[in-house]
Amino acid sequence: MSDVAPSNGPLAIVCGAGKFPFAVADAVMRRSRRVVLFALAGWADAQEVARYPHHWVRLAQVGHMHRLAQADGCREVVFIGAVTRPSISQLRIDIFTLRLLPRIIAAYRGGDDHLLSHVARIIEQLGYRLVGAHDVAPEILVPEGRLGRHAPSTRDEADIALGQALLSAISRFDVGQAVVTAANRVIAVEAAEGTDRMLARIAELRRDGRLHLPDKVGVLVKAPKVGQDRRFDLPSIGPGTVAAAAAAGLAGIAVEAKGAITADVQELVRAADAAGLFVVGIPPLQPTRGEP
Fold this sequence. Notes:
The structure is a single chain. With 292 residues, this protein is of the alpha/beta class. The protein folds into two domains: 11-138, Rossmann fold (3-Layer(aba) Sandwich), CATH 3.40.50.20; 141-282, LpxI C-terminal catalytic domain (Cytidine Deaminase, domain 2). Helix content is 36%, strand content 16%. A six-stranded mixed sheet has the order 6-11-10-9-7-8, with helices on both faces. Helix 11 (265-275) links the parallel strand 10 (252-256) and strand 11. The two termini are 22 Å apart. 39% of the residues are buried. The model is unreliable at 1-6 (pLDDT under 50).
């Protein structure tokens, strides 16, 4: 963590794709705090970005972002929104960032958590305090318990437990944050394709007759990796996740309570109720005896 003291000054929000940057910005502004969006070209929604004080930047232009953030008086930074991991050759590096190139290359030699932890150190060494989106906008965290009308069955609860155990076991490999389990079987593990495409793959397997399961059997389970820096990349769900889970024939979605985010919990509940799926916030998996 940075030694920079917490600030009530302007908050820099480095924003990628999706609704989350704007949900966070709105929540922070409701607390009477100014925000400045650093919108990533190629990812952030230009029409939404225009509603806020903002600058357009490119992913590897650290020097440019640093100068703009200093000029705006920003001392705290949040990273939020989807960004596809680019190759090093795709980065448009400025002169300042060129000096960091050996560190950037080293950061790329690992999974997403490895890369993001290196990014965090670079940002903090520039004098900023890097905070999680949920620290400045706690309302985006998924609460514990059943969120809509539907509840998991005993079979679903067993599938949730299996999914949690699997996510805990594979965390050290720095892969995805989601799995699908059904009837005490592991059906899919999220990798680089992301949650929606993983669910689309399950829907295709069902349509092609390569996955034989009754409708409304199976659970999407999402949770942060064990030891993950939670200032970055918390698992997320929304109405789109519900639609994809319904198309895959699942019974519901379970996410780690206060370890996953949603842009609008009421919108999520309405979508789940309409689709006939359950959504639950579950406690973190407790390590078994002998585990760290």
